[in-house]
Structures are given as C-alpha cells and as structure tokens.
Specification:
alpha/beta, 4 strands
Length: 271
Amino acid sequence: YNHYGAQGGDWGGIITRTIAERYPQHCVALHINFCIALPGDWYAWVKALLALPTLSTTEREALWGTYYYLKYESAYLQIQATKPQSLGYAFNDSPVGLLAWILEKFQSWSDSKGLGPEAAGVSKDALLTNVMVYWVTQSITSSMRIYYETVGANPSGAKPSLPQRYCPVPTGVLWSASELIKPPKKWAQLVYNVKYWSPQSRGGHFFALEQPDALANDVELFFRGAVDFDQCKRNPATPGQGRGSEPGKWLFLAGVGWVLVTGMNWVRSRL
C-alpha cells in the first residue's frame, strides 16, 4: 500500500512512531497505546516545564507513576540494554527462569490491582502461550537485544536511537492511568500531532491482552471518526515537518535577552 495507518503499543508504539516520523508521506495516520513524549528541542522543554503548574491531579499522579516505574521497575531495562547475551544463555537453559522473568512483568505491569495477571484479564493460557513462543523458538536473546541496540547504554559509543523529533502525522493516543510511562497531553502535543486523546480507566501496559475490545473500539474510533483517512492520504505530512509557527519561541528569546542586557547594565552601574 502506498498509504496506510499504523498502530502499536510497547515497542510497537516506538517503532510505528519511527515509521510515521520518517515516512509520513506513506504512514499517514498513527494510533498508539504507549506514548513516550520526550521533548526533542530546548523550546519544547521550556513549554513542558511551564505546563507543570497547569496539570490536573490525574496528570500529576501519572507523572509520579512514571517516576516510580523509572526508579523501581526499570532494572530489567538496564541489564537488557547492557548484557542481553548473558541473560539469554540463562533463559534458554531454564524454562522456569524464562517464565519467572516474563511472569513478573505481567504481575507488575498489568492493571491487576496487586492480584495476579488474570485479574487484569490475561489468562494463564495466554501467558503460557507467550512464554512458549520464546522457549520453542529460542528467541528471548534476540528480543532483548533491541534494548542493547537502541537505548545506548552500552560502551560501544552508539547514541540512543529512540525517536526524539516531532512526529507530524495525525496521531491518536490511548492513555491508560496504569501504563508505565504516562506523559501529560500537553507534553505529548509537543512531540506528536495529537488529534485524538483517549483516557482509559482500566488496562495496563499489556493493553491489547488486558482490554482487547476496548483497544479495537478505540482504534476504530480514531481511524473512522477522529481523522479523515482520505484527507490524510490527500494531504500527508512531509519528512522533517515541525510543530509549525511558534512566535512564543522568539518572544521568549527576546525576553531572556532583555533580562540579560538589563542585568548587565545594572551590574555596570554599580561598579
């Protein structure tokens, strides 16, 4: 297809965003249920920080949840980003070890309210099938190597390759309060061309397994209602397209310049 839409969660949310950012003339609409909104330029950071006092209670709690995940739940990311091969030998040798590594993530990251993954809607059959795919194909090592190749935490000198530029493609975001990373909408708008924002009261990181009907409905609402797909095909974004005119950037710089000049003149007058 010359024109298409994309949907993704977890790494799928990162990969589909990269596709949309690099090839917006083809991937003309994007729906994600894992939104990483890291400002990609200094002015975006300024706007993100200035937005903090305006955030709702829910958004502030979500930011705290994101901090909690990064501080207490991300050790797996560090070891997979630095020593995936060592883990791979162990997991390919021990089905119990492989199951424990994966099951713990479902336990901690699903919307189970402290109970087992089944309380979040993930059946034991689904869990065992998920683990068996890795075990039978011996593919757990290659699945972890993407962290080594992308995060930039290894001594090879490679820079992180996670997307940071603005994604100009019309984007829909399914936002769950139980997801791992939960940026405020105002932050997401600095990184994505957000046309649709869908908060969800249920569902965690494994949303497609936990709430499959809700995800399917949200995808349909976005592609059939929130955006005009034919219009997206007729007028696609262009590679490298930015957020558009931002006169506030120049006003901010002018203000900073005025403060500096005024401050220097004041200091000189006192010398």
